Amino acid sequence: MTTCQINHNLANVRIVLVGAQHPGNIGGVARAMKVMGLTELWLVAPKKALDEEAEARASGASDVLASARYADTLTEAVAECTLVVGTSARERRTAWPLDDPRDAAERLLPKAAEAPVAVVFGCERSGLDNESLDRCQRHMRIPTNPAYSSLNLSAAVQVVVYELRMAARQTTEDGTVTTGRPPATSAEMEGLFEHLEATLHTAGFFKPNRSGALMRRVRRLFNRAAPDSSEVNLLRGGLRALTNAVRGRGDPPL
Ligand code: SAH
């Protein structure tokens, strides 16, 4: 199974709810956050105190609910943040850059390595007001059915924190997802390339003495994929089976 390591920047992402009306939704937000590994819940001037319904909807995430921080203003809640993204169900005709949750998560995560960042959500009835949106450097909209575009508050948070978790998976420098195991060694990669070249020769794929340029491209392809040792072994097992098949003595399938 491919295991993805999660980096720790998620702990630096604040989910800020401005003027939330229903305690039940706040509980739902706590749960949405905890399942994706976020813990920093900020409540700006909620309309009602947390109650039994909030607890019930939080389910096993009552710790996130209990450690929620309160602020009177959004300005206070995001004071230390280096990037603040406001969410809106509506497409506003403004100069604000508008991201989808995937792009926003990719912007937020690297910043979260150094300092807190925030994603801000509005109240159930009217969303984020313009004054709150003014406090945000970017805006995010979850792409939806244009005829029915508004998600429930905790559902909107769920979509956003899922994308944050996906963006937090350990990636290699060129942005590809790793398996969480170290990449194959240079010697293992050379063994693979030799094996591949020999197999392609056996299959008659190369013109005589013309394998150089093609093998360079094959190397580039596999180096980009950065396989780990077990993946190299898997490929070499496949090559052995192909060689046997070409020679007319196929192994029984695995
Ligand atoms: N009636 C409000 C929607 C409120 S929904 C309006 O028209 O704006 C409550 C909150 O959930 C919103 O303030 C926003 O933070 C979030 N939300 C709901 N749907 C969303 C969407 N499609 N994209 C981004 N955020 C959304």
- Which regions contain 5 or more consecutive residues with pLDDT less than 50? none
Described by its quaternary structure, the protein is single chain
Looking at CATH, the homologous superfamily of the largest domain is SPOUT methyltransferase, trefoil knot domain
Using only C-alpha atoms, the radius of gyration works out to 25 Å
Query: Biggest sheet, in brief?
Result: 7 strands, parallel
What class, by secondary structure content?
A: alpha/beta
Specify the helix fraction band.
40-55%
CATH architecture of the largest domain: 3-Layer(aba) Sandwich
Number of helices: 10
Nearest-integer average pLDDT: 87
Q: Return the string of H and E elements.
A: EHEHHEHEEHEHEHHHH
The CATH first-level class of the largest domain comes to: Alpha Beta
Give the CATH topology of the largest domain. Answer: Alpha/beta knot
